[in-house]
Amino acid sequence: MVSSSLLGQTTGSIAGRVRDGEDRLLPAVRVTARSANLQGERSTSTGADGRFRMPGLPPGDYEVWATLEGFKTVGQSGVVVPIGREITLEFRLLPSFSEEVTVAGSPPLIDVTSAVTGTIVERETFEKLPIARTYLDLAFLAPGVIVGASARTRPSIAGASGAENRFIVDGLDTTDPGFGTLESTLPPEFLDIVEIKTGGLGPEYGGALGGIINTLTRSGSNQLHADLFGYYKNSGFSSDTPKSVQNSQFLGSRTYDYGTTLGGRIIRDRLWYFLGVNPRSDNRDWITSQALRVTDPSEGVSYVGKLSWQLHASHRIVVSAFGDPGESTFTTLFAAGLLRDTNKTTSRHLVLSYDAIPERDLTLELSAGRYEQNTKRSPAADRPWYTDFTGGQFARKQNCGDPDLVTNGMNFAPGCLGGTFVYDPLDSLRDELRVSATWHGRTGWLSHEVKAGATFRHVEFEFNVHHPAPAPGPFYDSAGTLVAAGGLAGQQWNLRPTFARLDEFAQGGPGKNEELAFFIQDEIQIGDRWTLLAGLRADSFDSTGTKTEEDRNARLKFGLKDMIGPRVGLVWNPVGKGQSKLFAHFARSYESVPLYLNTFALGGVGDNYYFFRYPENGELPSAQNPGVLFSSFSTRAVFAVASNLKAQHNDEYLLGAEYQFGQDLSLGLTGVYREVGDVLEDFSIDDGQTFILGNPGGTITRNPVTGVPLDQAVVFGRPVRKYRALQLSFQRRLRESWQLAGSYVYSRNEGNYVGLISGGLTPHITPDFDLPELGQNASGLLPTDRTHQVKLYGSYRWSFGLTTGFFTQYLSGTPISKVGYHEFYGPFRFITPRGSAGRTPAVFTVDLHTEYPIRFAKGHLTVALFADLFNLTNSQKPIAVDQVWTFAAARGTEDPNECGGPGTGPGTSCPDGNPNWDQPLVFQDPRTVRLGARLSW
Fold first, then answer.
1. Could you tell me if 204 and 294 lie in one domain?
2. 10 Å Cβ neighbour count for 755?
3. d(Cα 214, Cα 202) in Å, to the nearest integer?
4. Considering its fold, how many domains does the chain have in total?
C-alpha cells in the first residue's frame, strides 16, 4: 500500500449509536445522510452493538436520519462534518404506529475521539472575515500561529520556523521541495475549507516539525452556481507610513484583482465540475534608503479545475488541477544603488484521488499527484538611475550610496546595475502516490478503527545561482597587489563603514529525494467514554546530489529503523453525548529535509571574499580602483556527511480539555511542550576550511566522518529549542446570524536553535553552528517568542441584510539582542545573551469587513458590495528593529560591555558602534481600504 507521507485528509466521518426508550442498543437501524456537498445520499445500518459509522464524507452541512420499522424516525440537521474529523451522534428511537418524524437537538461540536489541536475555517466563515487574498492568511486565526521571524507571510506554528510546516491542497503536498516554504497559493474564492493542524497529529502525517495546513478546493453541485468578483486597492486609500532608520519607506500599493468561478453538474448526483480563474496585478511603491522612489510590480493568474465523479454509491474519483504562474519585480531597499530582480514563476499541480467502501467495515483511499514549479530570476531591465555611471567607475554619488553614511552595510553589483542573484534555473518536482486502508471491527468488548498505509515520493530540485555581474578576472589593488579573483560566475560589492568586500559567488546542482514510509494506527474504543490512540510511523529517506556520483557516502540516507515515530494518545469523554473530552498525546515527528541542502552541500558551491580599505581618492571601489587588499578568504566549501548522522525530529506533549456549553459554544484549554532533537546542521572542526553535515553538540575528539583523532578537541553547544505554551480557545458556531471565536496563548520559546530559517532561508546550512565561537551567548529567547497572544474574530448578519466581520489580535513584542560582527560571518556574534536586550513594542490590530447584498430575479441573482478596512487604528509600531550593536568584527565576544549602540558611531570614541541600534527597520502596514464586488447566480 502506497500513500503520501502526509496523507492529506479530504473527507470526514459521522459515527454514533442508536438506542430505544429503555436505553437498549438497537441493531439494524437504517441511518441516512444527505448534503448539498454529497453526490446522492449515503446510508448504513447499525450493528449488533447499535453503532454505525459513515466514513469518507465530503466536508459540509448534513442532515442525518435514523429509521426502523415500528419506531419514530429521528433526524438531526445542521451536522457539520469537518475535514479530517469525526462527529459522534446519539439517536433515541421511540415506538410509533405512524410515520412520525422527530427532529433532534443541535449536533455536537467536539470530536471526542481525536487529540488533534488547531482550527478549521469553512467558506461560510472566512467569506465574512477581512483576510488577505491568499488562504495562507487564514493560518493566523489559529492559536499558537504567529508571523515568522524573517518573513511577514510565513507562519510560525508552536515555536517552529516558517520552513517547518507542510501545505496540502486536495490531498497533494504543495510544500516547496527546495526550501520547505509555500510558493504556490490560491485565492479564497476557490476554496471550501482550510484546516490548520497545530498539534496532536496522527501517524498518517509526517515531514512537519511545525504544523499542517490542509486545504480543500470547492466542488460542483447539482445546481449551477457562478461568481464574478473583483477587488481594488489604491495607496490613496492608505495612511502614510514612517521611514525606517535606514530611510526606506513604504508608500502604498495599487491592486487590481478579479476573476470568475463556475460550478455545476454534468450528470445529476454523478459527475460535478468546478472551474475558477483569478488574474491580478499589484504595484507597490517605496522610497529606498537612497531616497529613490521605486515601484515593484507583480502580476499573475491563479486557476483551478476539478471533476468529482461518483462511480457508485461507494466509489468516487476526484481530479484537481491548479496553479498560479506569475511575474514580479522587487527592490533590495537597503542596498547601495538600486538592486532590482525579476522572478518569473510557472506552477502546475495535478492530483487524482479515489476512495471506496468495498465492504461495510473497510475503507480504501488511493491518490497520485504531481507538484511542479519553475522559477527564473534575473536583474530587472529598468535601470534609469545609472546612466551617469560610465567606464566602470563608481563616482561618490547618492544613487550608489555613501560609505560614510552606511549603517548595516550595503550591497551593489559591479557597474551599480542589476540585481542580487541570477537563478537559472530554480526547478522543483514532486511525484507522490498513496494508498490507505481503514478497517472497523471488534475484539471482545473493544471496538477498533485500524488505519494503515505506506508512502512513496520522488522529489527533484535543481538550483543554479550566482551574482549577476561578470567576474573581471585577476586585477591589481591600488597598492599593486595582485588579486587572484577566482573567476566564479558573478560578483557583488559589500560596503561596510570601515572596509569594502568583494564577494564572488556561484552555486548549483541538482538534488533528488526518494522517500518511503509506513504507518499504522489503532483507534481503540474502550466502552462508551474512552479512546486509546496507538500509532506508529516509520520513514526512510535517501537524498543525493552531484557529489554522490563521486562518493557514495555524500548523501543523507536514513532507513526505516532510523526514523521511527510513535504517536500515542488517550481521550476520555466524561460527560458523554460527544460534548466533552480530556486528552493527552505524545508524538515524535521527523522532518522531510528540504533539497536546498543538496544543491549547496552535495552540489557545487564556491565563495571567495576579498577585503579592501576604501580608495584614498574617495571613490567607491571598482575593478579599476578597488582600494587596498588586506585580507582574502575562500569558502569553496568541502562538505562531508558524518558517519553517525541522525535524522532531525521534534517531540510534542499535549494535555488538554474541551467542553461544549449548550448548543453552540465550545471551550478548550491545552498545555503544549515541544523540543527539537538531533538537529541536522553543518559545522566545521578546522576553522571553516571544510564543513561536516552532522548533529552538532558536545565535545568532538575524532573526525565525525573518518574517525581519525583530532589534534585538539572542538566543543560545540548542543542545539536546543524548547517551546512551552498554555492555550485557551473558544468557538461559537454560526447560528442565528452570528459567529465568534478567539484564543489566548501564554508561551515561551527558548534555546539556541531558531530553525530552518535563521538570518536567511538556507535550511540546515545556517551559520549558527559553523564555528564554536558562534555559539557564545547564543542561548536565550528566540526570535519567534511572543509571551502573550490574543486573537478574536467573528461576524454578524444584521436584519436589513448587512454583514459585518472582524479580526483583531494583540501580540507581545519579540526579543531584542545585541549583535556584533563576526570576522567572516557578519552580524552573527552575540555580545550579550540572545534576546536579553528588551523587546519590540506589542502589536495590536483591528481589521473590519462589511458586505451588503442586493438581490434580483427573485433571489437567483445577487450583487454583493463589500469593503475591508485593515489596521483600523492605524497603529504604526515597529515589527523589526536594528539589532546590530557594533560593526566591529571579531572572532568571539570577550567583553559583554563592548562599546556600541546609541551615541556611538563615526566621530565618537566608539567609531564602529551603531547609533541606530534598537531603531525601527520595518513597521506595521498602514491603515488600508480594499473595495470589492461580487455578482452571483
1. yes
2. 28
3. 14
4. 2
